[in-house]
Amino acid sequence: MRVSRPAHRAVSVSCVSAVLVACSGGLSAQPPHPIQIAQAPPAATASSAEVMRALPDFSPLVEKYGPAVVNVEVVEKTQQANGAAPGLSPNDPFFDFFRRFGIPGPDQAPRGNQPPMRGAGSGFIVSSDGYILTNTHVVANAEDVTVRLTDRREFPAKVIGADERTDVAVIKINATSLPTVRLGDPQKIKPGQWVLAIGSPFGFENSATAGIISATARSLPSDNYVPFIQTDVAVNPGNSGGPLFNLSGEVIGINSQIFSRTGGYMGVSFAIPIDVARNVEDQLIKTGHVVRGRIGVTIQDVNAQLAESFGLDRPRGALVSSVEKDGPASRAGLIPGDVILAVNGHPIERYGELSGSIAAMKPGSDASLQVWRQGKQQAVSVKIAELKEQQQTAANAPNGRSNARQTDQATQLGLTVRQLEPQEKEQVQTTGTLVVEDVTGPAAAAGVQAGDIILGINGKRVKTSRELQDAAKSSGKNVALLIQRDEAQIFVPLRIQ
């Protein structure tokens, strides 16, 4: 979308009103009282040259690689119902949570018969013959895609492929001898290092913003297959799909998401590591789709309470909360309560790292897992299967109470439980035999709910209320309670007073 920019005028870019405000204050020609400034000894004062040497100068990097960063403009096929993430109401508390760049807010939703929606993002050229990396959400549902270079040349672009799980897309323009970026190694980055983003925030093309890496291998609630790079670089709507550079001028990530309560930058942004994006790019160009590995487990993070419950020295690894029946993990002997500490010798600190590691492996290959089970570490070999999208239908667990059914209390945990009827077990398709009737104390504080099915404690299965009480008594102050809620299984840490 072309927008003229008359001098000294606020302009509207991509449905976002940009208002520039200059703040100034009156200054007298001379202060009413002379101000004395104490002079430090010359030996203790850093020279301005030394201060300048301590700060990075990004201008050579911007000059050299800025031309390889492009503006991506999109005309969508259809209009979104509310201009936001599909399926979310504007009143939903997560409406603005991790909202994608370039998507209009609810107050900008199309009404009536209006022209097709237009969006804008960024991208960067990875090959001189016109292959460009950007975000999937930038080109999703696109009817027409136009790429504009820094020299103001424009090219129609074709979407070669897009992967929703990683939010990586590849587009192509018919051009040659194009400027390209250099790709780096995200495995070498560290928190505290300087990074630079170049993109088109609010349509302001080739804008450069800088900051530092805040953290690595971040797992976000909606993205379990990407170990995000967290930064404090200012990124806003329109920066999506743009590159994140290190000081060597290498692209280490693709700017993708922000954490925001307002829809704009609030100091926390996330980038997709370039090695993840490159793997997706190669597959999209060769086959048009992405193949991922899977082992058939549901995992969760290990916090301090769970680590103590399972006898780990510190919180680390990925805790297996459920194992798919007849899946690769089941055939390899993995069970709920196992903590996966490493894959092929690479340590797993957080559960998101396991998802990314397994997904990057080729189906049919073997993976060597280091597993913590019952206070001991052991090796487990599992054959990687192919990940396929599956639709799941949730079943409602029984949550009604009946005075005719016998209930038992595990007072230490704050649980009132009863035995499941055979027809109930069949209905919810569970291997558990105990259902929660009431919660108080530690269980209530931990979020256990009536209707949850108790499967085990600290990795040990329990089938009766007596086994539940005995297991609780023999545990320490922290208990890892394995429950089933609908079709999901999860370990819930309980702190016993």
Structure characterization notes:
The strands form 6 sheets. Strands 24, 25, 26, 27, 28, 29 and 30 form a 7-stranded antiparallel sheet that branches. The longest helix has 14 residues, at 274-287. The termini are far apart. The chain folds into 3 domains: 62-287, Thrombin, subunit H; 293-386, Roll (Pdz3 Domain), CATH 2.30.42.10; 407-495, Pdz3 Domain (Roll), CATH 2.30.42. It is 15% helix and 35% strand. The protein is an alpha+beta fold and 497 residues long. A hairpin with a 7-residue loop joins β10 and β11. Mean pLDDT is 78; it is low at 1-41, 80-85, 87-104 and 390-406.
* Major beta sheet summary: 7 strands, antiparallel
Oligomeric composition of the shown chains: single chain
Number of separate helices: 10
CATH architecture assignment of the largest domain: Beta Barrel
- Tell me the fraction of residues in β-strands, as a range: 35-45%
- Average pLDDT figure: 78
TL;DR of this structure?
With 497 residues, this protein is of the alpha+beta class. Helices cover 15% and strands 35% of the residues.
How is the secondary structure organized here?
Blueprint: E1 11-13, E2 16-18, H1 48-54, H2 59-65, E3 69-76, E4 118-125, E5 131-135, H3 136-139, E6 142-148, E7 154-163, E8 168-173, E9 182-183, E10 194-199, E11 207-220, E12 223-231, E13 243-245, E14 250-258, E15 269-273, H4 274-287, E16 293-294, E17 297-301, H5 304-309, E18 318-323, H6 328-332, E19 339-343, E20 346-347, H7 351-359, E21 366-373, E22 376-383, E23 385-386, E24 407-410, E25 415-419, H8 422-428, E26 434-439, H9 441-446, E27 453-457, E28 460-461, H10 465-474, E29 478-485, E30 488-495
